[in-house]
Amino acid sequence: MAEEYDAVCIEMLNMQAMGRMLRFGKSVSDNSFGKFREMLSYKLKFRGKRLIQIDKWYASSQICHVCGYKNAEVKDLRIRQWQCPSCGSEQDRDINAAINIREEGKRQITTVGHTGSNACGEGVRRNSSLRVVVQSSEKQEAPAS
Questions:
Q1: In terms of DSSP H, where are the helices of 47-143?
Q2: Which of 1, 41, 119, 137 is the most exposed place for a label (fewest CB within 10 A)?
Q3: Looking at the DSSP assignment, which residues form a beta bridge with residue 63?
């Protein structure tokens, strides 16, 4: 991943809370996500690339990536597919979340801090070679933009 991509976007999940909430116990907390994140960060930094960490409170699976509608009914993790009440598009929970995480990461790259203001000025240039790809566990690939 560090060799192939200019930036990698990940959601900062609280694995201990997920283990308690979903009753997975140690299987979630022992999955070494923290170690993976640490190694990925090191490898990206070594190559001059970026790890963008999306806040754990960002509603990545609840926001329709087509129209931006926030569907609070999808908080229930048992809901894996849903139809947007606003635009009618069919959403797969995980693919929708991955697309939203990618878009939020791109937004963070093009803004200064978390203020939402656009970066501008001499010496500040958008990396035109930025490639971001979303992949699901089914090996489907969304088009890079």
A1: 93-109
A2: 137
A3: 70
